[in-house]
Amino acid sequence: xxxxxxGFYGIGGGLCFPLLSIMAVEKAxxxxxxxxxxxxxxxxxxxASLGAFTLGIATTYIGYRGVFLxxxxxxxxxxxxMRVKLEQR
Length: 89
Known about the structure:
Structural class: mainly alpha
Low-confidence stretches: none
Number of domains: 1
Number of strands: 0
Strand content: under 5%
Mean pLDDT: 91
Radius of gyration: 16 Å
Number of helices: 2
């Protein structure tokens, strides 16, 4: 079961990361696409490293269940913000 979950995680990450990168670069003016790409990559790496570090420390205080619930809350807030932003267009 863990191998199946890891496979889905790998496929999802392998598809989402390049697609989000393309979306970020397409929004930038043509002369700033390199800067947009490097900003996206740096923010992605920083988010992954700081998120793992911070949530690892938070696990000590609120446990794994609390960390996963917190991440679900952040995801729901993010989805709501994205929906509002898309409706404004």
